[in-house]
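Priority: medium. Attachment 1 of 2:
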């Protein structure tokens, strides 16, 4: 069960839930705001369990890694995992707080803190789960759109 929950977390890092977030008190330029909008859009789609919509923001060569997994995962495997999980979960809350956004001509790195709460249903049992931690997303500009090429999630110990 814990491994399944961590799979869900990995994907939801980008991602994607109930309340809109702001860019806090920091000043961001147009390019930084464009990239941050993709991060928030992905989380909003995850909240709605719109897996197909969220995955549109992913590059075809995406590689993501959670600190608990031995190896990164790719777009195809992540899509499969989320489609399996969407019948078992309900997002109840999410919040994102950007720390740094660096953008070059066609690459970007976004560091942010996330909080995610959801309810998992396994048969007749339900469990409320909350995760928070740090995420770093790596984007490339592909065909004029920012696409998530890779990410890494570091979850805080919630025990």
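Attachment 2 of 2:
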């Amino acid at each position: 069960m814990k491994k399944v929950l961590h799979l869900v977390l990995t994907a939801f890092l980008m991602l994607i839930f109930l309340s809109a977030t702001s860019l806090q008190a920091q000043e961001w330029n147009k390019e930084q705001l464009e990239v941050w909008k993709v991060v928030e859009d992905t989380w909003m789609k995850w909240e709605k369990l719109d897996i197909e919509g969220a995955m549109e923001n992913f590059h075809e060569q995406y590689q993501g890694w959670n600190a608990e997994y031995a190896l990164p995962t790719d777009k195809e495997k992540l899509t499969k995992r989320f489609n399996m999980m969407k019948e078992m979960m309900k997002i109840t809350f999410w919040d994102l707080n950007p720390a740094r956004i660096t953008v070059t001509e066609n690459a970007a790195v976004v560091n942010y803190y996330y909080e995610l709460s959801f309810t998992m249903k396994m048969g007749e049992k339900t469990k409320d789960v909350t995760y928070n931690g740090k995420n770093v997303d790596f984007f490339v500009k592909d065909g004029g759109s920012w696409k998530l090429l890779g990410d890494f999630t570091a979850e805080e110990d919630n025990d």
